[in-house]
């Protein structure tokens, strides 16, 4: 009987959940391949993480020796140092600015409410409105790509998708100053997500030598000419952003590994760890300098944001049940948060924001006024509570003035020895409010009514605020929401078990971890971050427990927060595993009925222009003919490379005959840097090129510029294997060809091992007769049936 009721309840919950709007509608069979729409009118483009080993690349590599390799490694470590220093200083600047604006705001408001609470409310609203208005103005008129947290876009970039504008210099400036205005203005959002985006922007700008548009570039920084090297730098920047935001260097490394990167290797781990360590040193040094009072209201901060080392020392077996309940609540509320923000963001992007920038500004200002009225007005309706008996050992003072660091805020109280528990968390900065909720030895400081009121109002404000045209992070609001219901559960546990060693603040910490796990679906990195920011290793097993439960509950309803936001932004992420349905599909099925567009080896300029105008493909097979008349596929030509050749015109020739590549007699007229598209920009377009009539009648030999060894799969290979090949190698194109008729050799693991002789320095490959990997002759590369282009969207 009980099982029947439970089954009926689960079916009812799934039915209700299915009626909530989702990000996109699936087809009848539940499988969708290659259908992504950019909802905001922006553009996304796949990145070329594959090394194009054409003739020019090989000739340039032949001129480089071991000295250049050592130089390249040293430059990578030097850039990791610069990324850590730059991100650390950016985080310190943002934190000092936010804390000082908040300190001035609360000090001014507190001085005015001594005479009139109404006048203090007006000043409070106007102060917040001015800061928020400055933020939204910067975003709408200067850096539109700086809106939001930026983590979905950066995750897409590291997955192989470049969104226009996300890593530009103006985006960096807009992110820094926009975050100061939005967070300092008291909105229900945080600065941690934007700091990850800030670190990525700093890394990207260093990787491409600065910004040429604003004349802030340096030629000696322009070392890396491949998307792969720039990708590694952006990974360092992401880790540095988390390390600076939470002052958690190890958590930053794990965040980059677990959440944002799609390709990882041991050499990158070392550089990411080094970058996070540099951030920790910079932040520690800056905060030590600020403790002397030189940073205004930022003087009381520490490297540990919310220290709970003096909290609950042990726990009993009976407490595991309410802690598991916290995990379930976190999974449910986190999944609901993802679904509601997805629905509101979808409506906002498809309808509201299409009406222009003035609507975006009005929307953010209206939310700012509502948030200020709620945070100032609701505590006025709450009856004050007498201060508890003072404990000299606790170090807690009661009461305190509004906006001052600590618990027990005196706000609209008739007696000086009373405090307003709702004002303690509402009329305060988010960091101080979380510190109050996490605090130990403060049993019964908050009433259940105040916590429930704050939970409902702040949850609603966080849902509505995210997606507006300001930089917005969801880490700190998630911690606020989770710590509130965690403290509620802790109050119940204290009253039920009646034990003196149970701390409500411990349950608040577990609630914060559960909500973040239920919303963002992070486990290892989030667990380490929570331990680092609270300085309590004893709670590690409990944090692991609630994270596992909350993630499992949340996964039953929808995807993680960043995955949902990436989808609604039209960023086609390739997840770590292919869909189950791909096992029964082949590579030819993914191609559909598309027609492959070819280029001959020697092609007329007018034909190139015509083909580029007739389609938007970014890769084209190049074919040639043997003396026997047999057609060969000699490689892959990228659209961006064709545009460079059309613009430079130095490779134009009058003769339709191919050039001779043997013997290295062909001069190299281009640097590899010319073929690299600037990060987050559109690069050269066909509209920028204006060939003359004489130019259109000339020819180009594409052989020196094609990728002669593109990845090729047989037409009947399962789509799941093609998917894994795409994601693990970071590809953009794969040729799909018929079955080969001949094999010229086999390669095994031993064939790839290199032996270097000590005396002569000669290098040779080991040989073996065992065969596992087939090598096909060039002549057997038949014409591709089709071309798989990044699985989702080119």
TrEMBL record:
<feature type="transmembrane region" description="Helical">
    <location>
        <begin position="116"/>
        <end position="139"/>
    </location>
</feature>
<keyword id="KW-0812">Transmembrane</keyword>
<feature type="transmembrane region" description="Helical">
    <location>
        <begin position="475"/>
        <end position="497"/>
    </location>
</feature>
<protein>
    <recommendedName>
        <fullName>Chloride channel protein</fullName>
    </recommendedName>
</protein>
<feature type="transmembrane region" description="Helical">
    <location>
        <begin position="68"/>
        <end position="96"/>
    </location>
</feature>
<feature type="transmembrane region" description="Helical">
    <location>
        <begin position="509"/>
        <end position="533"/>
    </location>
</feature>
<keyword id="KW-0129">CBS domain</keyword>
<keyword id="KW-0407">Ion channel</keyword>
<dbReference type="InterPro" id="IPR014743">
    <property type="entry name" value="Cl-channel_core"/>
</dbReference>
<dbReference type="InterPro" id="IPR000644">
    <property type="entry name" value="CBS_dom"/>
</dbReference>
<dbReference type="InterPro" id="IPR001807">
    <property type="entry name" value="ClC"/>
</dbReference>
<feature type="transmembrane region" description="Helical">
    <location>
        <begin position="233"/>
        <end position="256"/>
    </location>
</feature>
<feature type="transmembrane region" description="Helical">
    <location>
        <begin position="451"/>
        <end position="469"/>
    </location>
</feature>
<dbReference type="Pfam" id="PF00654">
    <property type="entry name" value="Voltage_CLC"/>
</dbReference>
<dbReference type="GO" id="GO:0034707">
    <property type="term" value="C:chloride channel complex"/>
</dbReference>
<feature type="transmembrane region" description="Helical">
    <location>
        <begin position="320"/>
        <end position="341"/>
    </location>
</feature>
<keyword id="KW-0472">Membrane</keyword>
<keyword id="KW-0677">Repeat</keyword>
<keyword id="KW-0813">Transport</keyword>
<feature type="domain" description="CBS">
    <location>
        <begin position="706"/>
        <end position="763"/>
    </location>
</feature>
<dbReference type="InterPro" id="IPR002251">
    <property type="entry name" value="Cl_channel_pln"/>
</dbReference>
<comment type="similarity">
    <text>Belongs to the chloride channel (TC 2.A.49) family.</text>
</comment>
<keyword id="KW-0406">Ion transport</keyword>
<keyword id="KW-0868">Chloride</keyword>
<dbReference type="Pfam" id="PF00571">
    <property type="entry name" value="CBS"/>
</dbReference>
<keyword id="KW-0851">Voltage-gated channel</keyword>
<feature type="transmembrane region" description="Helical">
    <location>
        <begin position="268"/>
        <end position="287"/>
    </location>
</feature>
<keyword id="KW-0869">Chloride channel</keyword>
<dbReference type="InterPro" id="IPR046342">
    <property type="entry name" value="CBS_dom_sf"/>
</dbReference>
<dbReference type="InterPro" id="IPR051280">
    <property type="entry name" value="Cl-channel/antiporter"/>
</dbReference>
<keyword id="KW-1133">Transmembrane helix</keyword>
<dbReference type="GO" id="GO:0005247">
    <property type="term" value="F:voltage-gated chloride channel activity"/>
</dbReference>
